[in-house]
Amino acid sequence: MNLAEKSPLQPTAAAAGKSARRPRLYVCGHNHQTATLALRERFALAPNRYAAELERLHETLGEQLLILSTCNRTEIYAFSARPHFEKELHAALMSLAAAAEAAAAEPLQHKGMDAVRHLFAVGAGLDSMILGENQIKRQLREAYQASRDAKCCGADLSRVMEAALHTAKRIRTETDLNVGTLDVGKAAVLKGEEVLGGLEGRVCMLIGSGAIGSVAARAIAERRPGRLLIVNRTLAHAAPLASELGGEAIPIEELGRVLPEVDFVLGAAAAPALIVSRALWEKAMGGGDAPRPICMVDAAVPRILDPGLGLVKGIRIFDIEHMEEIVARNRERRSCAAERAWTIVEAEVAAYRTAVAAAEVGPMIERLGKRFDELFETEPLGDEAARRLKQRLLHEVIMELKGAISRSHSE
Fold first, then answer.
1. Hey, is 203 helix, strand or coil?
2. Which of 44, 106, 305, 398 reaches 20 to 30 Å from 254, CA-CA?
């Protein structure tokens, strides 16, 4: 046997291809940094669309994936070993909106460890419009669970999602980034308070009693309004919150009846179309100007309060892009905590990289061990031949391990 010519551990072509192209994470999407509100709301997925779109994209791409759709972002995360997968993922994102609207801005795109870093930052609230906000953690968990429920989540996606949630937990417990932070609902209440000079004694209407609406309702109640009206499409969902806060649950069919009484309107419902249109307002008011200064803040994406209401004299209307000063003040207060949080993100990215390399090396060592045993069972060797073969085996093990580590660190 010519040991110099024979490589006892030469991998098969399939194994070599798999080793060279192991799956890595990709992300493609739009968020508050890459797209305007008008564009983001074209990509936002209503709850009744989410499962169907997830299933469709899973069938189209054939990969592990999840969709994160919030008021400030719609991002698709997917694992793939295919070359040029970025183009496939970009096309998948574009399919969520009409082509003409989708082409209006370049989406965010990352792959490999850059995508991992982005995911960890998103989960921690470091990439949120309101730095450190806590709603994103719940939204990320829900997206992860939806992926598992739809059988779109494999071992690779599970590993990175668990790492992202662990990173978010570390930041929450080891820094002050998330302590007493704002979220979209609270920021909307602050905007109304700022515009009207306070909400005490005023008639405040909240449309929507979901996660954002519940936070906003409690923030309004703390300001002792004259009345708190909670409007919801399903009255049974609004009634417990209204009862808890001393408010009134109003069915959406009666919205026009109570509109003339309000001073402050906060939109926080998930709906595919406008809920308070200018036509509805004019019908409720009998036309004409607002009888007193009225503030409306739309915290929903897509928007549910008609921007055209701002043309009515006496009404000032805002959306989440009109909260720059509130957002800036929150960011300034949390700058030191954010620096510490980014340090944790980088440490967790490094730990994840090591874990991925270890997961790849384990099966590799097992495969090499089996081939080692097979070879010695079939080849009668003397002491010198055995020594040379062991040296060759050791060399190939070292080279393959170095290759795995190099691939991991190059991403």
1. strand
2. 44
